Amino acid sequence: MKMRLSQAFLIISVLILNSCSQESLDDTDIIEAKNAIEVENDLLDIVNGHRLSMGYSSMEFSAIAYEYANKHNDHMIATGSLSHDGFSSRASSISSEVNAEMVAENVAKDYASAYEAFEKWLASAEHKKTMEGNFTHTAVSVKKDNDGHLYFTQLFYR
């Protein structure tokens, strides 16, 4: 009987911990917004150009990271807020799909251009560290909400 009670307690504890620690993105109705392709390409070029000017290698485009960046922008647009909601899930999925060792993310909202988003990231120590980090692949998603506000998500991995 002691064994069964301790096993039941362990199972309940695991279920409670998992339910409290999982990030939930299912509460929001997600509508797929249109990509601002030109802004995406500009930001990717600007970030890679910056890396090259610092003596770092440029990063290759990743279709898998692009898919996750797009989904995250749609989530931010649906909630109307800038966030890293669900990042651990995105990072885990990317890691398992491409065998990545490390995944990072920069997000932004309400900047008028790729250059403006880049400049703000460059002025932030954490965002700058990510852009200049030891990453081999990246993808940039930029989407516009119904009010014309741009949302930016850039994923990085190696």
TrEMBL record:
- Matches recorded under InterPro entries: CAP_dom, CAP_sf
Q: Which Gene3D superfamilies match?
A: CAP (3.40.33.10)
Q: Where is the SCP domain?
A: 44-156
Q: What is this protein called?
A: CAP domain-containing protein
